[in-house]
């Protein structure tokens, strides 16, 4: 498989030259293939943050030069994010800590009597925040069309026919498959509901436009968008946010506070984004997100998508050559996806396999249920892994012990990382692990108490 020269170069990221030790001896450049959990920061983003750091100051109301500079930087970042997301003129951009924080903020802003509709396939960040609402959990669809049909039936049947919110991912954090967001938004609006898009896995890989997708809100995290940890965004319609109590009460969210005659206090809250940004904001986090938005836009999503599809093709073709590997999918092998794939290997516990990839090849992947337990349990319902194997997760009474392996990559991934990964999978399946492994604190780790190589492969503990 060849790739056009225009898309042959990954974007520079931090850690691209980091070497890690191998349990079998020597060192190797670390292959970071866990982008779906946290992508490495773009070098461009880190450089921008470093250049700003000496001018760091408190924002809003500060009279000093650094405070004024930081305030401009913070508010300009809001505008950059709004442009990156294709927001409507009247939309608000609220800076949060993460996607999870963003969706919990929205959950706290739901109007009285609002019903929430969410597929069981969602990441826990989208599945769990709606604790104070009447929630309808929808079964996993097997086609995009079935997803739309399932949602339409549920919305039409709701009783009473009041305010409703649909929460849906743009791309699965387990399978990487793209969801029919525009069609789901149309279905929601046709039945008098609103929709929030969890773009945590979509925004780093594909352009996201609030206006074009016709979603009401979008949420994402900086640490998946090639920015450092600790920042996120909720962007979209202002009315529910304006009418809700502040997400946090404190300075910055309040416009004025005065004492009453009875000794209490009266508070007038801000109406804009500041209403839900109480406390000193994470200026560097907001600036880093804005820098990442600019970097991805300037690199061009057409180019980024073309390169990623090339890498996806290399991984899928390589895994298809290993009969023992089963790639997980909701919508089928041909469904479009971002650079996220999960799989299981016959004869292996997934934690053991992931540990061997790390210890013997310097490859970082993820194993487990990926904070999407209902979805992974649905996909692996017929593939239990025996408890007691190295790193096998404990199961609740009456449940099977299940886990899978996830490989994920993006704009900073060089060809060599995915080639090494595919080669390592083939070698582990055909020849087995070269080291013994044991369970420690619930994780499968190399057994460093013995220098002897593994006698057998696959399920050895």
TrEMBL record:
InterPro entries: Aminotrans_V_dom, PyrdxlP-dep_Trfase, PyrdxlP-dep_Trfase_major, PyrdxlP-dep_Trfase_small. Its cofactor is pyridoxal 5'-phosphate. Keywords: Aminotransferase, Pyridoxal phosphate, Transferase. This is Aminotransferase class V-fold PLP-dependent enzyme. The keyword Transferase applies. One of its GO terms (molecular function) is transaminase activity. Residues 33-421 form the Aminotransferase class V domain. It comes from the Bacteria.
């Amino acid at each position: 498989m060849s790739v056009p020269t225009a898309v042959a170069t990954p974007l520079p990221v931090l850690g691209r030259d980091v070497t890690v030790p191998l349990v079998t001896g020597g060192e190797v450049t670390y292959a970071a293939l866990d982008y779906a959990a946290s992508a490495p920061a773009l070098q461009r983003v880190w450089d921008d943050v470093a250049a700003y750091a000496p001018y760091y100051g408190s924002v809003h109301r500060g009279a000093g030069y650094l405070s004024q500079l930081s305030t401009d930087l913070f508010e300009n970042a809001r505008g950059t994010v709004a442009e990156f997301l294709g927001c409507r003129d009247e939309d608000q951009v609220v800076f949060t800590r993460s996607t999870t924080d963003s969706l919990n903020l929205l959950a706290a802003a739901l109007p009285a009597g609002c019903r929430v509709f969410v597929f069981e396939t969602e990441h826990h960040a989208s599945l769990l925040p709606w604790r104070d609402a009447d929630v309808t959990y929808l079964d996993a669809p097997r086609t995009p069309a079935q997803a739309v049909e399932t949602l339409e039936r549920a919305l039409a049947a709701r009783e009473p026919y009041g305010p409703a919110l649909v929460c849906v991912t743009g791309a699965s954090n387990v399978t990487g498959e793209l969801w029919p967001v525009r069609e789901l938004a149309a279905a929601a609006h046709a039945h008098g509901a609103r929709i929030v898009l969890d773009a945590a896995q979509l925004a780093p890989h594909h352009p996201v436009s609030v206006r074009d997708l016709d979603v009401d809100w979008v949420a994402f995290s900086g640490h998946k968008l090639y920015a450092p940890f600790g920042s996120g965004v909720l962007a979209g319609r202002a009315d529910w946010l304006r009418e809700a109590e502040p997400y946090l009460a404190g300075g910055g969210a309040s416009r004025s506070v005065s004492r009453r005659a009875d000794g209490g206090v009266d508070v007038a809250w801000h109406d804009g984004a500041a209403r839900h940004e109480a406390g000193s904001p994470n200026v560097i986090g907001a600036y880093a997100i804005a820098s990442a938005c600019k970097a991805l836009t300037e690199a061009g999503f057409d180019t980024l998508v073309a390169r990623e599809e090339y890498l996806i093709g290399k991984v899928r073709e390589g895994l298809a050559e290993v009969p023992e590997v089963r790639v997980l999918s909701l919508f089928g092998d041909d469904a479009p996806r971002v650079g996220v794939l999960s799989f299981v290997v016959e004869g292996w516990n997934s934690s053991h396999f992931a540990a061997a990839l790390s210890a013997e090849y310097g490859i970082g992947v993820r194993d487990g249920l990926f904070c999407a337990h209902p979805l992974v349990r649905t996909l692996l319902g017929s593939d239990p892994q025996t408890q007691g194997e190295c790193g096998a997760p404990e199961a609740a009474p009456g449940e099977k012990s299940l886990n899978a392996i996830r490989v994920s990559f993006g704009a900073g991934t060089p060809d060599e990382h995915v080639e090494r990964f595919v080669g390592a999978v083939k070698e582990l399946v055909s020849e087995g692990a070269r080291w013994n492994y044991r369970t420690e604190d619930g994780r499968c780790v190399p057994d460093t108490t013995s220098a002897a190589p593994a006698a057998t492969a696959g399920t050895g503990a």
